[in-house]
UniProtKB/TrEMBL annotation:
Residues of the full protein shown: 254 to 577 of 577
Catalyses which reaction(s): L-histidyl-[protein] + phosphoenolpyruvate = N(pros)-phospho-L-histidyl-[protein] + pyruvate
UniProt keyword annotations, A-Z: Cytoplasm, Kinase, Magnesium, Metal-binding, Phosphotransferase system, Sugar transport, Transferase, Transport
E.C. numbers: 2.7.3.9
Protein name (database record): Phosphoenolpyruvate-protein phosphotransferase
Transmembrane segments: none
Top EC class for this record: transferase
Length: 324
């Protein structure tokens, strides 16, 4: 019940065998920090910065962005904060881009995420400057969305260096310690993740888009929503591959898509080796409750079973066998 769940707020998230699990919050506005802390989040794993750019005709300037990023970092009182760089396009079209930058017939495959940032270097550079400045106020990490090609990582790193250079020239203080991570949410990036890991400080799996692109199912289209299935073995194979490859490379990996906050999937993600989750704050305590009852050794039986699963229903059956 609700009260018992509330009591878990300060309980450390660990499995029955004592393995610590990180539970971070996804937020969209600085005001969401309150809800994250109220639900025991030990960090922000995904701050969707593009919400600052939606529902308005102009672009937020460097100082406005700095104020928002700083508010989140300070609000989290020293806990790590991961801010995603602008992820517009697809399902998030800003007013100023309508019929202009983004007029593609197929926006999910068009100028979106990091692609849009690289095509609009002034917009991107302004955000990077604001972020690097805000980094002085706590433990900040940047997360780059929709990576598909290694060249995009190199270009982003170049822009970060240029932004630092500009701040130095202007005599403006910033942090040199901001980590740069990438979202793995395009199947091509998941398959070749080993190469991305060499250039990045961490990765976070965006399962919302990963499911959409792996199964060719529009995440917002009701007519095919029955086919949008996180239990599909293809999705789980990709997630398992990313986690295993990141572990071998000693690079931290998290899941920040909705799968991370889905209690049906918690044992499965633990079995695949996931130790870092980021989710909507309202799900944090529910997931923690499941984690506290999970035995990693017992869940290990799931991995070889998953290799054999032909479809999502078989995965669900296997899960019921092992978790029941
Ligand atoms: C995702 O794709 O899983 C994700 C976390 O990003 P968004 O839902 O904002 O696209
Ligand atoms: Mg995404």
């Amino acid at each position: 019940d609700r009260k018992k769940l509330r009591g878990l707020k300060t309980t450390t998230a660990k499995t029955l065998d004592g393995t610590a699990i990180e539970l971070h919050a996804n937020i969209e506005m600085p005001g969401d920090v309150e809800q994250a802390l109220a639900n025991g989040a030990t960090g922000v794993g995904l701050y969707r910065s593009e919400f600052l750019f939606l529902g308005r005709d102009d672009l937020p300037d460097e100082d406005e962005q700095y104020a928002s990023y700083k508010a989140v970092i300070q609000g989290m009182k020293g806990a790590p904060v991961t801010i995603r760089t602008i992820d517009l396009g697809r399902d998030k079209m800003p007013k100023w881009a309508e019929g202009e930058i983004i007029s593609a017939a197929n926006p999910a495959l068009g100028l979106t995420g990091v692609r849009l940032c690289l095509a609009e270097p002034h917009m991107f550079r302004t955000q990077l400057r604001a972020l690097l400045r805000a980094g002085r106020h706590g433990k900040l990490k940047l997360l780059v969305p929709m990576l598909a090609n290694l060249a995009e990582v190199n270009q982003v790193l170049f822009h970060v260096e240029q932004a630092k250079e500009g701040l130095r020239e202007d005599g403006i203080e910033f942090s040199d310690l901001v980590e740069i991570g990438g979202m793995i949410e395009v199947p091509g990036a998941a398959i070749t993740v080993g190469h991305f890991l060499k250039k990045l400080d961490f990765v976070s799996i965006g399962t919302n888009d990963l499911i959409q692109y792996t199964l060719a199912v529009d995440r917002g289209d009701d007519s095919v929503s029955h086919l949008y299935d996180p239990f599909h073995p293809a999705v789980l194979h990709l997630i398992a591959h990313v986690i295993k490859t990141a572990d071998q490379a000693n690079v931290p990996v998290s899941v920040c898509g909705e799968m991370a906050g889905d209690v049906r999937l918690t044992p499965l993600l633990l079995a695949l080796g996931l130790r870092r989750f980021s989710m909507h704050p309202a799900q944090l305590l529910n997931v923690k409750q499941i984690i506290l009852s999970c035995d990693l050794q017992k869940l290990g039986a799931l991995r070889p079973m998953l290799e054999q699963a032909a479809d999502a229903d078989q995965v669900r059956e296997m899960l019921n066998e092992v978790v029941a």
